UniProtKB/TrEMBL annotation:
It comes from Citrus sinensis (Sweet orange). This is non-specific serine/threonine protein kinase. Its main location: membrane. Its EC number is 2.7.11.1. The keyword Translocase does not apply. Keywords: ATP-binding, Disulfide bond, EGF-like domain, Glycoprotein, Kinase, Membrane, Nucleotide-binding, Receptor, Serine/threonine-protein kinase, Signal, Transferase, Transmembrane, Transmembrane helix. GO terms for cellular component: membrane. InterPro entries: G-type_lectin_kinases/EP1-like (IPR051343), Kinase-like_dom_sf (IPR011009), Prot_kinase_dom (IPR000719), Ser-Thr/Tyr_kinase_cat_dom (IPR001245). Gene3D superfamilies: Transferase(Phosphotransferase) domain 1 (1.10.510.10).
Length: 488
């Protein structure tokens, strides 16, 4: 308010005064006054006056005509616009996450969800918004089908705390991206930026076809943790095998090896078995049982040789068409076939027929790392630390002990797991895996997902909450109630 003076206590605020004329001011200890009411006030003889401190910290003065003709109107408020003056980089802002704040005529915030979003809790008008469709920015999901989605242009809007990367002097073609969840959303005439919000077109669901489709109907499914795909482990140590093995089918090779075969001939110089597409189609009963989706494709369960269960990763059509898929697929198969580690699930074979490219892995049936960490029963601290150590040793093997260095690209192609280098045209090194491993390590320690909106806005983003725990000297909160972990 301008009334606090650390060097002259006589100049500090002493009393808040609200006189009969409708003026509000702060009386200082030296009898000077600091005016809160700005400009002319409607006389108290004609109007009722009141001042309130709202739940969001906005202090406002209102007046109401004594003749009863009218509504409560704002004389002044502090701050003047809570939408743009809430300040601070933590939290969701005046409204919830993914919401847009607009100042109403009564100087109160009005929260609205963007097109294609709806309130997480319909009874909380200031709460967070959730997308009405499954988000996907990468190949293998619905996100790459342009016919299913459209963009809604909104002017004079910004989420200042949610920039994934910021560029100056760029046009709409090079617009910056925002990372979810969006926070501090606001719209105001003084904001010069505009946003393009992706939403799903109603009634444009992709068709269902018997062969593995390019765009499948939207399904409710669990996001597989640790690698961006699904692979199952038979023990605690084999859980790490799940983490690394299928990801090997999802990465780009940093130091690529050229395959000596001519492109498109469907063969790779390895000892792996080459399956026909028809054989794998029969093995999966026409790709009937989908067990997960990853960054570069879909994973199906099947049976070969009558009794042997396998996992098949179907490469994304988008990745095949736009990223020189033929050469990349052969390099991928070649390098995976050269890896030998006790915690890597074995690649049994592959299929390369035209645009049909699949990797065939052995199937282990002891559950996913996600279900292991986030189930009802929290695994012991010793088991979790063993998993973390095994993953770290596996990364060391891939980074330093393979004939060609292998960079996993990221465990999950989810915002937050992907290192910033991928968006800055920077040199990619093994450090990007270490960055991603840090997020996974937090999940292992806390047995919490990296983003869980059901935890409440203050705790929804695991990394933000972990930083708050560190800053406040309360790291034990990350393993709250886990006495085994605390005692260690």
């Amino acid at each position: 308010s301008g009334t606090y003076d650390s060097t002259k206590s006589s100049n500090s605020g002493y009393q808040v005064m609200f006189n009969e004329s409708g003026y509000m001011y702060i009386l200082r200890r030296n009898s000077q006054r600091f005016d809160l009411t700005k400009g002319r006030v409607v006389p108290a003889a004609d109007c009722y006056h009141r001042a309130t401190l709202n739940f969001d910290g906005v202090f406002a003065q209102y007046f109401y005509p004594k003749n009863g003709n009218g509504n409560w109107s704002v004389v002044w408020s502090e701050p003047e616009n809570i939408c743009v003056n809430i300040g601070g980089g933590l939290g969701s802002g005046a409204c919830g996450y993914n919401s847009i704040c607009t100042l109403d005529s009564d100087r109160r915030p009005r929260c609205a969800c963007p097109k294609g979003y709806s309130l997480l809790d319909e009874n909380d008008r200031y709460g967070s918004c959730k997308p009405d469709f499954e988000l996907s920015c990468w190949g293998g999901g619905q996100g790459y089908n342009k016919e299913l989605f459209d963009f809604h242009e909104v002017k004079n809007i910004d989420w200042p705390q949610s920039d994934y990367e910021r560029f100056k002097n760029y046009n709409e073609v090079h617009c910056c991206f925002k990372k979810l969840p969006l926070s501090n959303g606001m719209t105001d005439s003084r904001i010069t930026s505009k946003a393009f919000i992706k939403y799903k077109n109603k009634g444009d669901d992709p068709p269902s076809v018997p062969r593995p489709p390019d765009h499948e109907d939207k399904k409710k499914r669990k996001m597989m943790n640790a690698t961006g795909s699904v692979l199952l482990g038979s023990s605690v140590f084999v859980n790490f095998a799940m983490v690394c093995a299928v990801v090997l089918g999802f990465f780009f090779i940093y130091k690529k090896k050229w395959i000596r075969n001519s492109p498109g001939d469907g063969t790779v110089e390895t000892n792996l078995r080459c399956f026909s597409y028809k054989a794998l189609e029969e093995a999966t009963d026409n790709f009937k049982e989908e067990v997960g989706r990853g960054s570069f494709g879909i994973v199906y369960k099947g049976v070969i040789q009558t009794t042997r269960q396998v996992l098949l990763q179907l490469q994304s059509r988008n990745w095949i068409v736009f990223q020189d898929g033929e050469r990349e697929f052969k390099n991928e198969v070649f390098v995976i076939s050269q890896t030998h580690h006790k915690n890597l699930v074995r690649l049994l074979g592959f299929c390369d027929e035209g645009l049909n490219r699949l990797l065939v892995y052995e199937f282990l049936n002891n559950g996913t790392l996600a279900s292991f960490l986030f189930g009802n029963l929290k695994p012991s601290w010793n088991l979790r630390t063993n998993i973390a150590f095994q993953i770290a040793r596996g990364l060391l093997y891939l980074h330093e002990d393979c004939s060609s260095q292998i960079i996993l690209y990221s465990y999950k192609r989810t915002e937050g797991y992907v290192a910033p280098e991928w968006f800055r045209n920077s040199t990619i090194t093994a450090k990007v895996d270490v960055y991603s491993f840090g997020f996974l390590l937090l999940e292992i320690i806390s047995c919490r997902k990296s983003f869980d909106i059901e935890m409440g806005e203050e705790y929804a983003i695991l990394t933000d909450w972990a930083f708050d725990c560190y800053r406040n000297g309360k790291l034990d909160d990350l393993v709250e109630g886990d006495m085994e972990a605390i005692d260690k």
